[in-house]
Amino acid sequence: MNGKAIVITGALGALGKVVAEEALARGARVAGVDHAASQLAATADRIELGGVDLTDTAQATAAIDKAAAHFGRLDGLINIAGGFTFEAVSDGDPATWQRMYAMNVMTAFNTSRAAIPHLIKSGAGRIINIGALGALQAASGMGPYAASKAGVHRLTESLAAELKGKVTVNAVLPSIIDTAANRAAMPKADISKWVTPKELAEVILFLASDAASAVTGALLPVNGRV
């Protein structure tokens, strides 16, 4: 990935930080975009754009364009930004469904739409989305989250067909990711079966690499050792 310019959304989160560090270690130049504030000074190889609401089309477009301008090109977009909630349908809040759709589907749509012209110009453009294994068969309480992630799956497939021969578009579908938040939420779970952020980063960065040039429209389960 030497010299490739990559945008990572949700870059200040548990998974985003690991993907960013792994990408930098492989020689990529990284623009991290996040809703949280960032204090990192920009360098030739790294820039962080904090305080960005990616559910807002104008803010998402401005962030993508700023990253492309900083590096003079854009070769990849990794859409990690999103959200999770656990809520039953019977006593659920319609606002929850709207929030999940905005955080998981619209963020990926807004950034992908803004990145497409830059990625086509690259000649080897890549988009990698984060879906969810739990969206293939949703459990009780997973309705709003799983429905939104299923939307990410369909977005991935549709965009892959639309951009075939120009930009590859794929998604990884993790099971439970081993993060501090998930450990706190599920203290009795068998953590040894979860997928680690580094393991997930390996798959994501493969899809962002030249080696994955023939892979597009794929929904790849990453389910640890379940």
UniProtKB/TrEMBL annotation:
Alphabetical list of Pfam families matching this protein: adh_short
Classification via SUPFAM superfamilies: NAD(P)-binding Rossmann-fold domains (SSF51735)
GO terms for biological process, alphabetical: fatty acid elongation
Entry GO MF terms: oxidoreductase activity, acting on the CH-OH group of donors, NAD or NADP as acceptor
PROSITE patterns: ADH_SHORT
Entry similarity comment: Belongs to the short-chain dehydrogenases/reductases (SDR) family.
The name this protein goes by in its record: SDR family NAD(P)-dependent oxidoreductase
Organism: Bradyrhizobium uaiense
Biological classification of the source: Bacteria, Pseudomonadati, Pseudomonadota, Alphaproteobacteria, Hyphomicrobiales
